[in-house]
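[job 4417] fold queue: 2 targets
>>> target A
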Amino acid sequence: MTAGWVEVGEGVSVWRHPVLDVNATLITGEGESLLIDTLSTPRQARRLGVTPSQVVNTHHHFDHCFGNQVYAGCRIWAHRETERVLVERPGEVMAEALREFGEEHPERGDLTEVQIVPPTDIVGDQATLDVGGRRVELRHVGPGHTAGDLIVIVPDARVAIAGDLVEEGAPVQFSDAYPLDWPHALAELLHLMAQTGGAWRIVPGHGAVVDEAFVRRQHDELAALAWLIREGHAAGFPPQEVAARSPLGPGPSLEAVRRGYAQLDGRL
């Protein structure tokens, strides 16, 4: 794992932070820059050493937005569902951070410094930003990892920042997910990239930068799981039995099956 900023496309650099292996991405234009995701604490955000003109939160999970206060003078973009969670349920988001860091985590104390700063600019289905003369597209392609995932597209660099819609190096996380919709979200991402042709690089929320083939494989695994959930629900199978057949493994998939059943029952 590298430390510091690494260029993955023209004017697009990624900082792969060792805590939770989470990615922050910086897009630079003429005299301006856009930071995507602000890490887990203000201390981590300050380590990035950048002064962006705008910020994007890909979703509401703490490891992608708890550094927002460091950039409180910037426009902060996010989907309306991300804004809703941060405004209406900040205690739940903080509780997740405390659970993730645990009692012995060396940076747990930094969470006491966090002031949850919601976005200033709300995205519906899409928005287009100008970053120093560069066009950057924000797309919401439906619920997936959360209800409010945003994808950031940098057409001239052929780079897409996918947040946790794409997971590398760790099991897919379903705690706030919509497993029946997630495959469609990835299919939309693949479609957006296919429209322009050429090789794209995709920055996941965590882990190494991947290619379209990786995203396609993850789409296929999630689609297979979604069908298992639908079939299991129709047959009345218990979630544990369906999860045991998942291509993603029974452990990560059990929460997905439970949430998929809740979707089918109209409880989610």
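>>> target B
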Amino acid sequence: MFLRTALLVLKKDFAIEVKTLEILVTTLFFAVSCVLVFSFAFVKEGQAPPDAAAGILWIAIAFSGTLALGRTFERERYAETLRALLLAPAPRPALYVGKLLGILVLLALDALILVPLIALLFTAPLFARPLLLLLLLAGGTVGFAAVGTLFAAMLIRSRTRDVLLPILLYPITVPVIICGVRGTAALLESPPDETTAVMWLGILFALDVVFLTLALWTFEPLMTE
């Protein structure tokens, strides 16, 4: 029942997004614009600072993820969709997992465009260790989206949700972004520092476990109130 409910919520969001492409196009446009602005600022005569690519990658993911979180839950306000979901005879944490999976799919599509673009513009060897980079991106997006999905759902009834979401989200997800940046920067060294990248990856997965556990535990009481 739990998994079925989560997949049904994901299917609903996916079907709406396929018809409109509203969130995907908006977040991609925003992320690509962010990368282009940084490339004009930092790339001089074809050379960029060594660690710039790692920071810009995670900044673009964080900013586009925040935009996706706000727009995804904005839909649930229309016609009291969220109220209908909460009244359904289904585990409420499953609703959280379904929304989380939808955000993760959007962030994965963003990363699929951002990584080659940043590698090209900043001449960064992001594909030197593709498996480690993939694990870092997966761990970082899960941690960021786990907290963001909880806060976006909690703030859906607030008139100042667009302002409050980043104010609440960024201070808590700073450790996730730091781990992602430092781990990615280690992979950009010559030669790649795999030991350091694995260390940051371990910390990242530990944060994911903590954030997911707390989010699943607090989602139902927060949404009840």
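[job 4417] complete. Note on B: The CA atoms of residues 57 and 114 lie 7 Å apart.
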